[in-house]
């Protein structure tokens, strides 16, 4: 079923610029309704994102952009993972007026992100949906962002918390410095769990909390080398699982299989 909602060319030159691959998708000026999604029998997409990295978070019938005179209205079509404009989730079936410069996320986590913008006069990377399909394998390899599932992130956070708790319990540190350092660590962990806050801030807070513990406590008088190695290993392992989902190239499920064998 093809999109028959066509109008005469408006002369507007707008595009969706895909952030993860630095690729532009022209918005067809002769359509009143531009569907965004993946191939399906009911409503084939005018902008096909199936070949982009992390396309699994995008529904087949995900969203549409309706052109009303010179206005562009975006609408979520009941997608599984939602549509976000400038980090605000759209209610399904409710249109939102797009402005040049708006950021559109298909699904959570900023994994499929577009910028609604004017097309450059001579766009160097302007590609149609058909062209992006042809070069998709190279784009996926070069620009694929790391997506870590929630279970792996939870395991990573648990290991980080365990390392902090063990260190806190075994370092002789005064309450004046001890309580703030622990609070900093757990605030950092809280920040890591938030999608809309820069996670680098979380790591900085955790590092600051640990630094306070080390430089204000009698660490070498009360903690043996084995315990230091244990807590460091726990923290490093948790960090790898949370940020990459893998430990030296193996995810936790692969490690389970190796251990069971």
TrEMBL record:
Residues of the signal peptide: none
Record carries keyword Transmembrane: yes
TM region(s), chain numbering: 151-169, 175-193, 200-220, 226-248
CDD domains cross-referenced by the UniProt entry: FHA
InterPro entries: Cell_Proc_Reg/RNA_Proc, FHA_dom, SMAD_FHA_dom_sf
SMART domains: FHA
SUPFAM superfamilies attached to this UniProt entry: SMAD/FHA domain
Start and end residues of each FHA domain: 34-90
Keywords per UniProt: Membrane, Transmembrane, Transmembrane helix
Pfam families in the cross-refs: FHA (PF00498)
Superkingdom field: Bacteria
Name recorded for this polypeptide: FHA domain-containing protein
Organism: Nostoc cycadae WK-1
Lineage: Bacteria, Bacillati, Cyanobacteriota, Cyanophyceae, Nostocales
């Amino acid at each position: 079923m093809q999109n028959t909602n066509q109008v005469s060319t408006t002369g507007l030159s707008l595009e969706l610029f895909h952030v993860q691959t630095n690729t532009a998708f022209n918005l067809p000026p002769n359509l009143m309704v531009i569907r965004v999604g993946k191939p399906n029998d009911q409503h084939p997409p005018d902008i096909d994102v199936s070949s982009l990295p992390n396309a699994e978070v995008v529904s087949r019938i995900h969203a549409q952009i309706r052109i009303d005179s010179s206005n562009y209205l975006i609408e979520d079509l009941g997608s599984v993972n939602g549509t976000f404009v400038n980090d605000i989730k759209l209610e399904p079936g409710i249109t939102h007026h797009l402005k040049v410069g708006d950021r559109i996320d298909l699904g959570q986590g900023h994994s499929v992100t577009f910028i609604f913008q004017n097309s450059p006069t001579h766009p160097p990377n302007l590609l149609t949906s058909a062209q992006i399909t042809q070069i998709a394998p190279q784009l996926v390899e070069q620009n694929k962002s790391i997506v870590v599932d929630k279970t792996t992130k939870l395991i990573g956070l648990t290991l980080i918390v365990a390392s902090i708790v063990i260190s806190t319990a075994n370092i002789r540190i005064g309450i004046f410095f001890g309580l703030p350092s622990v609070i900093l660590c757990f605030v950092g962990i809280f920040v890591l769990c938030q999608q809309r806050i820069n996670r680098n801030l979380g790591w900085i807070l955790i590092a600051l909390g640990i630094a306070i513990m080390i430089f204000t406590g009698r660490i070498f008088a009360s903690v043996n080398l084995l315990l230091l190695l244990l807590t460091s290993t726990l923290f490093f392992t948790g960090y790898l699982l949370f940020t990459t989902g893998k430990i030296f190239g193996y995810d936790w499920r692969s490690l389970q299989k190796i251990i069971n064998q």
